[in-house]
Design goal:
This protein is α/β, with parallel strands linked by helices and about 140 residues long. The chain starts with a helix and ends with a strand. It has one domain: TIM Barrel, CATH 3.20.20.370. Helix 3 packs across helix 4. It has four helices and seven strands, in the order αβαβαβαββββ. Strands 2-1-7-5-6 form a five-stranded mixed beta sheet. Strands 3-4 form a two-stranded parallel sheet. The relative contact order is 0.22. The longest helix is centred in the middle third of the chain and has 19 residues.
Length: about 140
Amino acid sequence: MPRLGGLWAGAGRAGPSSVECRDRLAGGPAGQPAAFAAAGGTVGDHTVSHPDRTRQTLGQATAQWAQARRMLGRWLGRAPLMGWSPYGAFDLAVQAAAYSAGLKTLVGWSAVADGARIRTWDGNGLQPGEIVLLH
């Protein structure tokens, strides 16, 4: 499995073209998603506090999307237009909340970074265009 540092460094070449980040980075390496984006990666909105958005009211879900989107916009110079719903859970209300917060599309992911390791769903290596969920 590739090391996480290699993921950031290789983003513009053979690495994945999409990744997400969330507020756990707020107290940490905010430069990492910016460096990833500068290398050609796409950073998207995932959450503020990682709730199952299908269990939230429309207002709560909209606030979750909007707050994370604003924070990422400050870090990256522009707010993301793509989002990943926690646990992959979404319904029409979650989609409406995402749209109300300024997101244009919701996507799933094909790999998860746990600590310093990346785990893909199929056990194979990452390919260009893969979406990696960073926790």
